[in-house]
Design goal:
CATH superfamily of the largest domain: Reverse transcriptase/Diguanylate cyclase domain
CATH class of the largest domain: Alpha Beta
Number of strands: 10
Strand order of the largest sheet: 2-1-5-4-3
Structural class: alpha+beta
Number of helices: 16
Order of helices and strands: HEEHHEEEHHHEHEEHEHEHHHHHHH
Helix content: 40-55%
Largest sheet: 5 strands, antiparallel
CATH architecture of the largest domain: 2-Layer Sandwich
Radius of gyration: 27 Å
Low-confidence stretches: none
Shape: elongated
CATH topology of the largest domain: Alpha-Beta Plaits
Mean pLDDT: 86
């Protein structure tokens, strides 16, 4: 099918004497003709990476190409390094399949040139329909099997593993590590179309970098999943490398998207086989959620490094109440004037009650440190010499971070 598309686009490009590029309806590059002469940064990038950037996709959709039923002349956009174009939508029985793009240089495409392209639409739409149908079926089978791997039902997971191995989607069964990409969005905690496209591009780019048969990916309603599977691509070091690549890909893909404030990656622990993917996924998902709440943890958050947050992230939301852990500390958290006292207390407890180390960390005179700690004891009604009290205070501070009630500067 791909060869048929290639022949058609080469023939059309030769007749209008200018390069042509075909994208599917998600604006992923399918085929393109030989390119000579005028070219811009967008076309060059599309050919090299085989996909269009989210910024260009958003720009094109604002112009209205998704609704177009006739050829559209699009203006230049210097900010994107994009020259004027002619976009011809490809439809099969009014179903949008994709687009043919031509750079519209100084000589400009004439109406006769555009007529040549539209005359080729029946052959082009049928070929692209067949291509899309086969690709969609394969993609849907893989996505469904991956989705099933992440559910609780043991029998469903066993069947998903059999399907992935039988279809050759993954090379072998073996150790698996899950990565979850969470995009911190500016409103409603819902990914818009541009954010979802950016997430998909970053996941696919990382799969290509790691190896497509050693990875699986899935985009869910508010996050993305990357499974490293088959042994060679797994382990803590390999997961760290894949996470670093995915982090860079996410930053590049979401750059300029107003709806995304930052990105966070959670890494689950290794599991011995594909069947156990759900366990690593649950850990990676919780790690990513904690990372969104606690920016100080950085953009990549391994489950193994979360400490007490491993426990707190699994607590039911209705029980995430600081006052239930330590009522006195709960009162302090409600008053911004006590922020310095709380930060001093947290460092003191993080350093196991070592006053000397705490004073050095905070660059305080020892007398100032003792004064602040005494104020905490008085205001919170606690005794820092009591081990149980120190435990409850420490736990309450970490819970305050997780729920957003306590937001220290550090």
């Amino acid at each position: 099918m791909r060869m048929e598309l290639q022949r058609i686009v080469d023939r059309v490009a030769a007749r209008v004497k200018r390069p042509a590029l075909i994208e599917d309806r998600r604006q992923r590059v399918v085929v393109y003709s030989e390119h000579t002469g005028l070219i811009d940064g967008v076309r060059r990038s599309s050919i090299l990476r085989r996909h269009t950037t989210p910024e260009v996709i958003a720009w094109a959709r604002e112009i209205g190409i998704m609704e177009a039923r006739q050829p559209v002349r699009t203006p230049a956009c210097p900010d994107l390094d994009l020259l004027p174009r002619v976009c011809v939508p490809i439809r099969h029985q009014d179903l949008l399949l994709g687009f043919v793009w031509f750079i519209d240089g100084a000589d400009g495409m004439t109406d006769d040139d555009i007529s040549v392209v539209t005359e080729a639409m029946p052959d082009l739409s049928l070929a692209l329909y067949r291509e899309n149908l086969l690709g969609e079926l394969t993609s849907q089978r893989e996505a469904e099997a991956t989705r099933t791997l992440l559910v609780e039902s043991p029998e469903a997971r066993r069947e998903a593993v059999r399907s992935l191995l039988t279809d050759g989607v993954v090379a072998r069964d073996g150790q698996v590590t899950a990565l979850v990409a969470q995009l911190a969005v500016t409103r409603d905690d819902v990914l818009d179309d541009a954010a979802r496209i950016a997430l998909e591009h970053a996941l696919v780019a990382t799969r290509q970098w790691v190896g497509s048969r050693e990875t699986l990916h899935l985009v869910r309603h508010d996050h993305g999943v990357l499974l490293l599977c088959g042994g060679r691509a797994t382990g803590r070091a390999a997961a760290g490398d894949a996470a670093a690549h995915l982090d860079q890909a996410l930053r590049a893909a979401t750059r300029g998207l107003a709806s995304v404030s930052r990105t966070v990656l959670g890494i689950g622990d290794d599991r011995p086989r594909l069947y156990d993917s759900v366990l690593s996924y649950q850990e990676a998902f919780q790690a990513a959620r904690v990372g969104v709440q606690l920016p100080a943890l950085g953009p990549v958050v391994p489950w193994a490094d979360l400490g007490i947050y491993r426990l707190l992230s699994g607590v039911d939301a209705q029980h995430l109440d600081v006052a239930r852990v330590h009522p006195g500390l709960g009162r302090l958290l409600g008053d911004e004037a006590h922020q310095v006292l709380l930060e001093t207390l947290e460092v003191y407890l993080d350093l196991a009650g070592n006053a000397h180390a705490t004073a050095e960390r905070l660059r305080l005179h020892r007398t100032t440190l003792y004064y602040r700690l005494q104020r905490v004891e008085l205001l919170a009604g606690t005794d820092l010499k009591d081990g149980n009290e120190r435990l409850c205070l420490h736990l309450a501070l970490k819970l305050g971070r997780l729920t957003g009630r306590y937001r220290p500067d550090r």
